[in-house]
Amino acid sequence: MAILERFATPAGLTEISDAALNEWSDTVKAIYADYLAEHPQFYDPTEQDTPDGAQVAPIAWPAFPARLRREVTSQEERWRRADNDRNEQDEYCEWSVERDSEKKVTRVTFTTEVPEYWDHLAEHDPDRLLALYRELVAPDVELDELIVDGTYKRDNDRNRTTTGRLAHLIQGSNNLEAAVDLVAKATVQRERDGVPVDGQQDLVVCGSLGNQFRHSDPQIARAVNTVAAAGDEITLRDPVGLYIDGLDAVGLQTPDGADPATFWTIERGDGAHAVRARYEVPGDRDYVVGDILDRGRPIAFGGQLADRVRVRVTALVKPADHTPRPQPCVP
Amino acid sequence: MTAVATDAPITDETCKAFRELSPDALTPDAVHRFVVGEDTTLQVLTAEEAAGELGDPFATELLLKGTFPRTAGEVLSAFAAAMPEGDLLRAPMFFLVGDGSQIPFSAETADVARNLRFLVTLGNGSEGPDVMLSAFNPEEGDVELMAWDHARGGFNYYQTVGDSSSWVFAGNSRHALLEATEGKGPFESHPSGNVIMKELRTPWINWDSPAANILPSAFAPDDPLRDHPWFNKKDPQGAITCEASVVRPGIERWTKARFATIAANGGKIERPERIMRQVLTSPAVNLGSSHTETSIVASTEAVDLPPRSFVDSAALTETLDLQAPPAFTVPGSRYAAALTAFDVALTDGDSFSRPGDTHFVFLVPERAAEDQAVVVAAIDSGLLTERLAACLLMVDFANPVFSERRAALLRHVPPTATITNDASDFSQALADAILAAAASTAEGSPEHEFAERWNAGEAWREAFNPLLESYYAAVTARLSDQEGFNDLFRLAEARRQRVRQMPIFESPLLFAQTNIPASERVMQSDGTVIER
User: Fold this and answer.
1) Which of B28, B129, B345, B466 is deepest in the core (most CB within 10 A)?
2) What is the tally of structural domains in chain B?
3) Last residue in a domain, options B174, B206, B232
């Protein structure tokens, strides 16, 4: 590896022009730039070399919000709450659930696509934006539903659906800037009353690094903080983004004995970098997702599948010899 | 079978019996049988005997073909060599757990026994793994291994002794249910013959998980395990995967096989008491905790408390569809005040002591998942009606574990039961027996309480929900002041004290120590706690 020529689009999607690809790279660079001066252990790989031996550090967590596991005491209620409100889906992954006339689940669509990329599409290639909405969300979407007064509306009516086909992330904390912010700030060592702060939740609280009761923020923070403590430098691996790391189908039982894992389809990206996927029974079978048993209980909620979906971000660790100076907790 | 020459019959019937075995007493490269309760001495199985008794892949693919690995690492290598490309027995999954896993290594903590232990699974399929092994060090002996017996059902339990190349078959899950062998040997800690992950629920205290990664700093700087492939290849989701893809499917697999045996036996159950023991008592427990780390308790607005420590919501809500509990919380300042008042500290009983609670606070026992699986299977099979299950579990419902009142109902269980066409008269017979006994017991007896529940008839949900709601309100009220919370903290400590007497208590680091005097404490349905 050497100096990265430019940041790729999430999942390396090549649906935009070369000029737009360059501009996307500039967008990511601009996000990085806000942190470089104050966080010397966080680096821009398009400016600094990444040696071949840099350590690849994937960090994975479940798509279902840990916060709801903590706050809601019944399984069904936590699944229902998550399904009904995208604002509850705060682990850098969101989903929507389609049902048939009998209210059975027919398809669950998951996304980790960052909204910044869709802002970029709207600005540089609105025709592509509309084409993608018509392909992924609904064929009757019109551009004026998406771009209002010249500005792309991330949480437009089409995208904020919980019952149709969503386009990309909209929850307030689910975006690329938040992920970069977390990684960059987590490089700072923290101490309280002279004692190093190393607990996952404590680090998030002390460093003001998100929500301490999520799966994602504390885990990313501690993983980054631990390597930074050794003096190394960290960046996010290109293509920079949040990725769907797969679905664990163990314990799912189909009516006809078919392998339930085969009903998982990546719609955007590839196996290594999936940003959109769906769970749906192919039309040639006489049952739907709602007929599949999840440990003996029919799949009645998308949240049941979200329990089984993993989300991932991958850091790169470059050996360096920084001497971290612990900082007090953020007031 | 050939008896191995030992000094004397082994009389210890606990799982420690295996620690009494000397590696020198074992025949190298041989399968031994030592099922405590059936065998008092080690027996060497002939090839024919071993083939007749052992139908799991560890036996059929390795031992019976003359491969006798000495260490956990060698088990993996042996499967890799024996199985064809792509076979799931060549694809291990690695997990890590340790009672002291969140205590970083330092000069001050160098001597702390963190009990870091790998769980490795092989042959991971839709019903969970076929092989599970547990080892402190991949390169050392004293391996414990469980493997699913495809011929007879149930898990076969194996163990090595020291660095010996001999393996000891210690029993099958079904031995956990037989009078001669139950509670003995490995079934002391696996009382129903099932898979154990004592910290089974989020946030899976002590396990490597997204909630609390186990970092290399848990090992000494010169410990080769810091950079061992097993450590580096840990499942990225750790305990989440272990719960969902290993332990819960494993529990369901054995429970299903156990009830399938009943069906194959014409529906006749010789010892229904053995099933009802798992419904009415706490032969095993899982441990649940808050999601809040001890390090942030004081600054946290609301510390969540595990709801199953207050009510058996796994059975009452998830299975029987009764009112779910609210999210019980207590202000962080109040929790911190209790930690100070009760002088709570995590200690190894030796040189290490750190003020505060366990890594995730309020670690308490709750109904074991293996027992809950039996409740579900008993209902699904037709042995128990939902009404009877609800009426039984609503007796002393404020004490989800270690309830002497529910345990007292065991004496009324009929000696046999039969399931025919997914139904049984067992529920009515048990209810009738308890009701008949109620007349001769004092007011307030468990039998009277059951009778009250039973009298609700088929409208039991409508009758029970207000009881639960009233109880939840009472608990919430107790949590609203320091005195009330301190009472509930003392109650939790009394339950921990019970767990300290159980085989799953393997390290003083499992629970924090307190200055709370040992005493039996019981929760009342009005939220008060009485001491006995």
Assistant:
1) B129
2) 2
3) B232
Tell me which H or E stretch contains A305: helix A302-306
Please say whether the beta carbons of A25 and A46 come within 8 A. Answer: yes
User: What are B471's two structure tokens?
Assistant: 């109880």
Asked if A199 and B293 come within 8 Å (Cβ–Cβ), the reply is: yes
Specify whether B337 is located in the same domain as B411: yes
Report the distance separating Cα B137 and Cα A155, nearest Å.
52
Q: Which of residues 178-197 of A touch B (CB under 8 A)?
A: 197
Task: Name the 3-class secondary structure at B304.
Answer: strand
**Mean of pLDDT values over A242-247:** 96
Q: What is the mean pLDDT of chain A?
A: 95
Same domain flag for B373 and B450: yes
Question: Domain limits at B109?
Answer: 4-232
Would B258 be classed as within a structural domain?
A: no
DSSP structure string for B402-463: S-HHHHHGGGG--S-EE-BTTB-SHHHHHHHHHHHHHTTS-TT-HHHHHHHHHTTGGGHHHH
pLDDT digits (tens, 9 = 90+) for A134-154: 999 999 999 999 999 999 999
Task: Show residues of chain B in contact with A77, CB under 8 Å.
Answer: 324
Q: Both B172 and B274 in a single domain? A: no
Nearest to B359 by CA among B111, B114, B110: B114
Structure-token pair, residue A329: 């907790």
Same domain for B54 and B153, yes or no, is: yes
Chain B nearest-CA distance from A63, in A, is 11
Q: Which token pair is A312?
A: 């991932």
Question: B334 in a domain, yes or no?
Answer: yes
Residues B398, B304 share a domain: yes
What is the C-alpha separation between B21 and B346, in angstroms, rounded? 34
Q: What are the two backbone dihedrals, phi and then psi, of residue B184, each rounded to the nearest 5 degrees? A: -115, 160
CB A180 within 8 A of CB A20: no
Count Cα neighbours of A321 within 13 Å in the Cβ-side half-sphere: 0
- Dist. CA B432–CA B416, nearest whole Å: 15
Q: Which of B215, B232, B249 is the last residue of a domain?
A: B232
Residue B469 backbone phi and psi in degrees, to 5: -60, -40
Between CA B407 and CA B413, with CA B408 as vertex, the angle to 5 degrees is 90
Residue B199 is assigned to a structural domain of this protein: yes
The pair of structure tokens assigned to B437 is 């006994």
pLDDT at residue B42 in the model = 87
Q: Label residues B457-483 b or e (16+ Cβ within 10 Å = b).
A: eeebeebbeebbeebbebbbebbeebe
Q: Between A and B, how many CB-CB pairs are < 8 A?
A: 103
Contact A61 B304 (CB under 8 A): no
- 8 Å CB contact between B354 and B293: no
pLDDT of B7 above 60: no
Token pair of B161, please? 């002794």
CB nearest to B210's CB, from A70, A202, A215? A215
Q: What is the pLDDT of residue B77?
A: 97
Is the same domain home to B293 and B403? yes
Query: Residue B150 burial by CB count (10 A; 0-12/13-18/19+): exposed, middle or buried?
Result: exposed
Note whether B74 and B214 are same-domain residues.
yes
Q: Is the peptide bond before B203 cis (omega within 30 degrees of 0)?
A: yes
Token pair recorded at residue A96: 């929507």
Q: Is A199 near chain B, with CB under 8 Å?
A: yes
- Give per-residue pLDDT as tens, B476-518: 999 999 999 999 999 999 999 999 999 999 999 999 999 999 9
Cα–Cα distance between A309 and A289 in angstroms, integer?
Answer: 15
Residue B246 lies inside a defined structural domain of this protein: no
For chain A, give percent helix, strand, coil, nearest 5.
Answer: 35, 20, 45
User: Same domain, yes or no, for B152 and B271?
Assistant: no
The alpha-carbon gap from B236 to the nearest alpha carbon of chain A, in Å, equals 6
Q: How far is A184 from chain B (nearest CA, A)?
A: 20
